[in-house]
Amino acid sequence: MGLMLGIDTGGTFTDAVLVDEHREVIAAAKQLTTRYDLTVGIARAIDSLPPESLSDVSLVSLSTTLTTNSVVEGKGSPVCALLIGYDERQVQNSGLAELLGPEAIVTVAGGHDAGGAEAAPLDEEAVRKAILNWRDKVSAFAISATFSVRNPRHEVRVREIVQELSRKPATCGHELASSLGAPRRAATVALNARMITHVQRLIESVEAILSARGIDAPLMIVKGDGSLINAQSALQRPVGTVLSGPAASVLGACALSGLRDAIVADMGGTTTDIAVVRNGRPELSFDGALIGGWQPMVEAVRVYSIGLGGDSEVRFSGGEGISIGPRRVVPLSLLAAEHPEVLPVLERQANSAPHSSQLRFALRLQHDEALLARLPDDERQAWERVSAKPVDMEYATAEDRRLARALARLERKGLVIYSGFTPTDAAHVLGISSHWSTRAAELGARIWARQMRRLYGCGTWPDGDAEGPSREVFDLVVDGISQKLIEAGLHEQNRLAAAQADKLSRLLTEMVMEQRRDPSKPSLFSVQFASDAPVVAVGGPAASYYPEVARGLRTGLYMPRFAEVANAVGAVLGEVSQRVHLTITQPMRGTFRVFAPDGPKDFPQLAEAVEYARTLAADEAATQAREAGAASVHIDFETDENSVTNEIDGDVFFEMRLTAIAYGPPCRRTDRVVQAVPA
Predict the structure, then answer these.
(1) Is the pLDDT of residue 6 over 80?
(2) Please, are residues 296 and 242 in contact by the beta-carbon 8 Å criterion?
(3) CA–CA separation, 244 and 548 (whole Å)
(4) Distance CA 431, CA 305 (A)
(5) pTM above 0.90?
(6) Which secondary structure element, helix H or strand E, spans residue 460, and what is its range?
(7) Which of 30, 8, 52 is nearest to 572 (CA)?
(8) Source organism's superkingdom (predicted)?
(9) Of 5, 66, 293, 309, which sits most exposed with the smallest number of CB within 10 A?
(10) Which run of H or of E encompasses 170?
(11) Smallest Cα–Cα separation from 312: which of 449, 157, 473?
(12) Are strands 416-420 and 330-331 parallel, antiparallel or unpaired?
C-alpha cells in the first residue's frame, strides 16, 4: 500500500506527516507557512521528513485553513458577481456589497420561478457588456440566478459567455448549493470565486514540490465535511474546502486519541475551531457552517469557529476594553526571530512617547496577480518596498505619509500584513512558550501596555511591567476559549437560540473563571463541563492554554502525541464522498415534478418520479466521486419526505428531498477506478 503523506498549510504553520498502512504516524515536521510563496514553507516541511521514505509515498492529501481564514479575515481575490433576475432587496440581503463592493455587482434580466419556468428572458447583451467591462479587473466571475436550483439554464448560458469572452474562471450557484434562498446562494458562489486563485496557488505549489522530489502520487484535498477530493475538483469548487483544516483536525484528533466521544478543540494562528464528536463521528451541518459572520451553503463538519488564535491581534475595542482578534497579525516574537533588525526599533519605542503605530511593522503577505496588476503607482512602490524588508509604520507615519497610506490600503487588500502584540507574545513573556524571541515579546508587552494606559485609559499596570499585561491577555484567551466550549455544549442541546446561548455562555464563563481565579471563595454553584466527553486539544498553541481551560471547566483534557500536527494526520484518513440532492414536488394533484440538472421533468406517479430521481442522482454522484478521485464507488440513499395523512384525502405528498451519496477510498498510485456499486 505504501505510505501516506499528509500536509496541512495553515495561516502560521505548515505541517507534514508520514502515516503507514496501520494509520500510525512514523514521522512529523512543522515549519512556518510562507504566504508570499507557499512553495517555501511546504518544501521545508516535506524536506524535514526522512528523505528515504518519500519514494514509498502512494497518496498525498492536503488540508488547509487558508480558505477559512480568508472568510474570517474578509480577504480574497477581486470578483465580479453576475446576478440574474435578482431584485434590489435580494442583492441587499446577500451581503455582496460588503463582500465585493457595490460596483462589482451586476444585475441582469432573466431567472426562473419556483416551478422551474422562465420568469424573464436572459439579457445576453447586458451579460456580454458586463464581462467585457470586468474581465481584466477580476480573478473570477460568480454567477447566480433566481431559482437556479430548479432550473440552471440561465446560469449555464452565462458561464458559456464568460468562457467565450474571458479566460477567467466562472462558478455557478446551482453547482454549489441545492437549497432555495437566492441571497445566501449568491454569497456562497461569490466566496467560492474569491478563493479560486488562493487554492490554485496552493495546489500548484504542492504539485511543484512533489514533482521536484520525485513523489508520483495522487494529490487529494480535504473538504469541509472531512471527505476528500482531488486537486482538479478542488479548483472548481474551492468553497467546499472551507473548514478543511478543522475537519481534518477532527479526524486526526479522533485517530490520535482513540476516543469516540469528545469535544475536539483546534487552536491555530487565526481561529479556534470546536466540534462535538459522538460515536466516532462529528456532526455535519447541512445548512452551512457559520464562519466569520458568513454562512455559505456548504456541507461541513458542524464547527463553532471564532477569530481567536495564537496570532490574533490584542487591541483596544471601544466599550469592550481589551479585545482579542479577529484580525491576524505577525507576533512580535516571530517578527524579531525572522528579522532581528527590528529589535533596536522596539528598544527605541520602549523608551519613547507612546504612539498608536508603535509595534506595527508591515510585511508582505501573499501575491495576487489580479490585484497587483491593478495597483496604482504609490501602492506598487509600497509593495516593492515591503518586499525587501519589514517597514516600520511609526517611521512611515511620521516621515512618509504617502508610503504609510499606501501600505494601509495594501493591508486591507490582503497583500500586506502588520505585526502586533498577540497571545503568542504573552505566552513567551510568561515562560509558557520559548521557541521565538522572548526579548521582543517582553518589549512588545511593555510598549502595548503603555499604549493601552496612556492612549486609551485602559489598564493599571506599572511602567516597565511585561508580566502583568501578559497575564491579563492569557486570562482573556482562556475566557474566550471556555465561553466557546460552553456555547458549543449549549448548541448541542438544540434548545437555545444563538443570542440566548451567547448570553448564557457568557454568564457561565464568568462563574467558572471566578471560581478558577479564587478557589477559596465560597460559592453556592459549581459548574462542571462535559463530564462524559473530554476535551481533545490539538494545534500549535493548544498546549499553552488548554490545561488552564480544562482546570477552570473541571473537565477532562486529552492532548495526544502529535497533537500539534493533528490536521496533517487527519488529512490522509478520509475517503472520497460526493452528495447529489434532487427535489421532487407535486405542483398539482397527480403531477410529480423532478427538478433535474437539465430542467424540471414531470411524472404521473410518485414511484416513477422517485425511481427517475434515484437513477439520475446515483449516476451523477458516482460520476462526481470518480472525477473527485475515488478508486471504487458505493452508493447510499437518503430521503426527507414532507407529506401528511388525513381521513378525507389519505396520504398527501408535498415534497421530497432525495440524496445519493457516492463514497469510496481515494485512488493511490497503483489503484484503478472501478464502477459504482449500490449499497
Answers:
(1) yes
(2) yes
(3) 28
(4) 27
(5) no
(6) none
(7) 8
(8) Bacteria
(9) 293
(10) strand 170-172
(11) 473
(12) parallel
- The dihedral built from the CA positions of residue 459, 461, 466 and 471, taken in this order, carries a sign that is negative
| C-alpha distances out from residue 607 to 115, 535, 638, 649, Å | 20, 47, 16, 18
Q: Worst-scoring range by mean pLDDT, 30-39, 82-91, 492-501, 510-519?
A: 492-501
Find all residues with CB under 8 Å of 577, minimum gap 6, and list them. Answer: 225, 227, 228, 625, 661, 662, 663
- Cβ atoms of 563 and 542 within 8 Å: the answer is yes
Element (H, E) at 570: helix 566-571
Question: Residue 469 in contact with residue 449, Cβ under 8 Å?
Answer: yes
Classify residue 181 as exposed, middle or buried by CB count within 10 Å of its CB (0-12, 13-18, 19+): middle
Spatial distance between the Cα atoms of 485 and 303, rounded to a whole number of angstroms: 11
Amino acid (one-letter) located at 33 = T
Site of grid cell 473538504: 223
Residue 315 to residue 307: CA distance in whole angstroms:
13
Identity of the amino acid at 52: E
Upstream peptide bond of 326 is cis (omega within 30 degrees of 0): yes
Q: pLDDT digits over 667-676, tens only?
A: 887 654 444 5
3 state SS for 509-551: HHHHHHHHHCCCCCCCCCCCCCCCCCEEEECCCHHHHHHHHHH
Query: In angstroms, what CA-CA distances link 562 with 72, 253, 637?
Result: 27, 9, 37
pLDDT digits over 308-317, tens only? 888 999 998 8
Grid coordinates belonging to 385: 518596498
The Cα 156–Cα 172 span in angstroms is: 7
List, as one string, the DSSP characters of 173-208: GGGT--SS-HHHHHHHHHHHHHHHHHHHHHHHHHHH
CA distance 444 to 429: 10
Q: Given the C-alpha cell 497503483, which residue does it identify?
A: 670
**3-class DSSP state of 359:** coil
pLDDT band at 190 (very low <50, low <70, confident <90, very high): confident
CA distance 278 to 280: 5
Cell of 175: 453547482
| Cβ–Cβ under 8 Å, residues 478 and 513 | yes
Do the beta carbons of residue 667 and residue 575 sit within 8 Å?
no
- pLDDT value of position 359: 95
Sign of CA dihedral 536, 542, 543, 547: negative
* Nearest C-alpha neighbor of 64 from the set 6, 106, 119: 6
The string of pLDDT tens digits covering residues 85-95 is 998 898 888 87
Kindly report the number of other CB atoms within 10 A of residue 302's CB atom. 22
CB 214 within 8 A of CB 34: no
Contacts for 100 with CB less than 8 Å, ≥ 6 apart: 78, 79, 80, 81, 190, 194
Distance CA 528, CA 628 (A): 44
In total, the chain counts a number of residues equal to 679
- Selection from 394, 393, 424, 440 nearest residue 314 by Cα: 424
Per-residue pLDDT reduced to its tens digit, 84-135 = 999 889 888 887 887 778 898 999 999 998 888 889 999 999 999 999 999 8
Query: Per the structure block, which three cell numbers stand in for 33?
Result: 507557512
List beta partners, residue 476: none
